[in-house]
UniProtKB/TrEMBL annotation:
It comes from Candidatus Magnetobacterium bavaricum. Keywords: 4Fe-4S, Iron, Iron-sulfur, Metal-binding. InterPro entries: DNA_glycosylase (IPR011257), HhH-GPD_domain (IPR003265), HhH_base_excis_C (IPR023170). GO terms for biological process: base-excision repair. This is HhH-GPD family protein.
Length: 220
């Protein structure tokens, strides 16, 4: 068994299914992927709740909304002026290319969709892949800081290696299974939040047990 599959099995046994991504519709999930940049999910949830409560969580409403008004709705997510421009860029992309409906993206092949998403202002590889995986059900593996930190601490790959190098590692070691990619990324995020912090908490504390990966020979 590969090291990556061993890590997956241990995390799944410890934490169970995570059933990501939080969101009621593919469009909401895509918005969440953009808003979660440089913040935590609780702040994103508040921003999305603002839009939902104002009955503005649609492409049509957001497309017609003044930028200043949208910024106020997105304020809880942090960097709200920057994120407003990014959300507006994504909305404009949907309207121009897919008649304002994210569902119209589904027939397009994954490689082309990824290129298109990366061409949108403020959308990088992690955000693009999050949209592909969680909103559009494409088997792509999302790489984030939690993933890089956990793997580098277990001597799988150096933290400084590129996004593409980390991603290819998963593609080479795992079956191309949408559900595994979905759960594995979510499990690594949970591990990062609980244990694999900038200052590691491998042995737990009064509220959590020790990290399920602690027994791996490669742990450092």
């Amino acid at each position: 068994m590969s090291t990556l599959m061993l890590i997956y099995d241990k995390l799944y046994a410890a934490f169970g299914a995570q059933r990501w991504w939080p969101g009621q519709t593919p469009f909401e999930i895509a918005l969440g992927a953009i808003l979660t940049q440089n913040t935590n999910w609780e702040n994103v949830r508040k921003a999305i709740s603002n839009l939902r409560e104002a009955d503005c969580l649609t492409v049509e409403r957001l497309y017609d909304m003044p930028q200043e008004q949208l910024a106020q709705f997105l304020r809880p997510s942090g960097y709200f002026n920057v994120k407003t421009r990014r959300v507006m860029a994504f909305i404009g992309f949907l309207v121009k290319n897919y008649d304002g409906d994210i569902e119209n993206m589904r027939p397009v092949n994954t490689s082309l969709l990824r290129q298109q998403l990366l061409s949108i202002h403020g959308i990088g590889p992690e955000t693009a892949d999050s949209i592909l995986l969680y909103a559009l059900d494409r088997p792509v593996f999302v790489i984030d800081t939690y993933t890089k930190r956990a793997l580098s601490r277990h001597n799988v790959l150096d933290f400084k290696r590129s996004y593409d190098e980390f991603q290819q590692l998963f593609y080479d070691a795992l079956p191309g299974d949408l559900q595994i990619y979905n759960e594995y990324h979510a499990l690594l995020v949970k591990t990062g939040k609980l244990y694999c912090k900038p200052k590691p908490l491998c042995y737990g504390n009064s509220s959590i047990i020790e990290c399920p990966l602690l027994e791996l020979d490669s742990c450092r």
